[in-house]
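Minutes, structural biology subgroup

Action item carried over from last meeting: produce the structure token record for DNA2/NAM7 helicase-like C-terminal domain-containing protein (Friedmanniomyces simplex). EB confirmed the sequence was re-checked against the source entry. Recorded below for completeness.
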Amino acid sequence: NILPRLIECFRQMDKRVNEHVMIICAYSYALHEYMDGIRRKLRHSDHYTMADMPQVLTVDASQGQEASMVVFDGSCQHSDNMGFVNDDGRCNVAVTRAKEVFWVIGGSMEVKQVSNSHLKPAALVKYKRELAGMGKCHRFA
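Output recorded by EB:
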């Protein structure tokens, strides 16, 4: 739902989305889903081109890259089951790619099992909590 409005916004500024927007995926499954969605959108639309589509990269592939706007899809639901996103180095790479706008898409990142509540939270969870404390996290249904 966001992409058409984002494309229009960048077109009005005479800019190309692929030069200014990056989607970083924590997991290759999410990357493939985004790429499939982009291919479908291009196949079914005469007025979109690859220049209108954001770059889609994994966390590791995004190292050394920057964009004005970065959307990080952590595909995270629970902070005690985050897989390799628990790696502070990878989280640092993901959250430092944006020059101006950084969005995180994911679940609540709350502890699922009370027995795990003593675990040290991952860097991404700490960052989300810090942003939430400043009123910069929003839930959308």
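Discussion: The first strand starts at residue 21 and ends at 25.
Next step: EB to file the record with the rest of the batch.
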